[in-house]
# Entry
Amino acid sequence: MLNLDWGNLPFGYVKTNCNIRAYYREGKWSDIEVFTDDKIDMHIAATCLHYGQECFEGMKAYRGKDGKIRLFRWEENAKRLNVSADRILVPQLPLELFKKALFTVIEKNHEFVPPFGTGASMYIRPLLIGTGAQVGINPASEYTLIFFVTPVGPYFKCGFAPVDVLIERNTDRAAPQGTGNVKVGGNYAASVKASIEARKENFSSLMYLDAKEKKYIDECGPANFFAIKDKTYITPASPSILPSITNNSLIELAKDLGLKVERRKIEVSELDNFEEVGQCGTAAVISPIKRIVDKEKNKEYTFCKDGNVGVYSTKLYNLLTGIQFGEVVDTHNWITILEV
Ligand SMILES: *Cc1c(COP(=O)(O)O)cnc(C)c1O
# Structure
């Protein structure tokens, strides 16, 4: 085991032993290759640079209580990468190649999977980019697959802390028939300016509304939104949100807890009636929200009024993180243990 300050790692890039790459040329994928260099040599007219022909995934490897390395629902990330790829005309990646790249990058960097009990984990970033040259608007003829890893610290350094969120009415991250439902860099390019402005005012993230009517809740920057009301887990149905694997898993756990589940349009005004609200995604699992500010409407919604995170958010968080770290029985068969 390496001697890193696991509890204080930032969510940033730490150089590890190696990264994995594969190439798509002349209509077929190469086998994987291992690189110690973390730079790539690419054509200046590559489509990923000019026309955003790039998609990615975000997942984690966890060190369990038993010392073993665990992956959470990795096949779901593989499937979603192919949905994203299809939307931007990137060729499909065979599941076996995704698996080989994933398992190899972890095995070769296993000492960077933080020890159990630190709250830290290893972030895995699969990236699929058009690297063939084009100047006219056409998909590339060559693609590069990259898997890199970096250890990341616990999301909550001082406990399960509720955050403030700002409703964004002046920027759209995605249009109803745009690319909001796939994991592509362009969605982030569209929203980074507004996010950074909000962060300067101490908002942890932005809440985007449906771009057409600005009436319904879409999602919170890089995380899905959920609410709890009358023993019901409610999450938005929208064509412009990214189907979060964390959210889909929380839905299953909510059912296990006896909650009803509703996936439907959620009007902003409903925020007045919710008992608990939160953002969910791989990075934090659940980031509970204590305040939602709607500047344009001069309105504020507050939660966690007694200073505590809601009971169901806490239960769901403990269950999901418990499964990921091997402390809770994995009744849904979500975990793959890697023998390293
Ligand atoms: C990745 C991502 C999420 C979270 O998805 P998970 O599979 O739960 O990590 C939510 N929204 C957006 C826009 C994302 O890019």
